[in-house]
Amino acid sequence: MIHRTGIEIEFGFDDEPLDVVVETLEDQGLDAAVEEYNHHTRDHWKVTTDSSCGYELVSPILTSTTVRTVAPAMRAVTEAGGYVNDQCGFHVHVEVPGDNDKFETGLAVAALYHDAYDLLVPLLRPSRHDNRYARFVDDRADWLALLTADRYTAVNLQPIHRQGTIEFRQHHGTLNSRTALGWVYLCDALTAEGASGGTVDSLRKRLRYVSPPVVVDMLETVGAPL
Q: Dihedral, CA atoms, 188, 191, 192, 196, nearest 10 degrees?
């Protein structure tokens, strides 16, 4: 993983207070706390509310080392009784690289996402293809124009102004850490290639030869054109 990242795991939860989720996270050796909804980056895993699914678990900043905590975090949510359904999403924030205009860099990454959509869409459940919280449009010019005005898009550029990250919003909710990490590494590769002026072909090469094997396995399992 090249860039610092963060994830938001949307999930449903019934009956018990959210403190139960925190307790199971702590049982996995993770620092965690329940908080009211906010956009603050924390050093701990944050359990909070979500308007579309009910609740979400927000990671601290993840690096190539701390990304290993994703698996025990998802395991903890499952053990506490959390679940996902078609209303849930899995969001990935990736730090925008470089010293150039970060919004322009974000647009370049979003353009590559659009160009590579045939590669990405097999990984997404049908419920995410036309989702009002993660909109995607076929026309490239309309897509890039949409990103300047709306946060509920498959690639959300609004966090660039607040925290210097691009948010990838289109993936369906998951508590499967292998699926989640495959998407995290893919978003990381998209950001690297988009920011450096890469193409779909160079993205495919990065995914096959540079990214962890989990990415290739994930793409080949669904028959994506790698």
A: 180
CA angle at residue 35 from 29 to 37, to 5 degrees?
130
Cα 112 to Cα 121, 146, 185, 218: the distances in Å are 13, 15, 15, 20
CB 94 within 8 A of CB 187: yes
Q: Report in angstroms the alpha-carbon separations of 38 from 34, 61, 77, 87, 187.
A: 11, 15, 20, 20, 23
User: What pTM does this model have?
Assistant: 0.96
Report the alpha-carbon distance of residue 25 to residue 31 in Å, rounded: 7
pLDDT in tens, 187-206: 999 999 999 999 999 999 99
Task: Please classify residue 26 by burial: count the beta carbons closer than 10 Å to its beta carbon, then call 0-12 exposed, 13-18 middle and 19+ buried.
Answer: middle
CA distance 136 to 32: 33
CA 186 remoteness from chain centre: 9
Would you state the pLDDT for residue 51?
86
- In 3D space, the residue among 126, 170, 148, 157 whose CA is nearest the CA of residue 10 turns out to be 170
**Cα atoms in the 13 Å half-sphere on the side-chain side of 133:** 19
Encoded tokens for 81: 């009784």
Decide if 5 contacts 19 (C-beta within 8 A): no
Closest to 115 (Cα-Cα) out of 2, 4, 202, 183: 202
d(CA 49, CA 157): 22
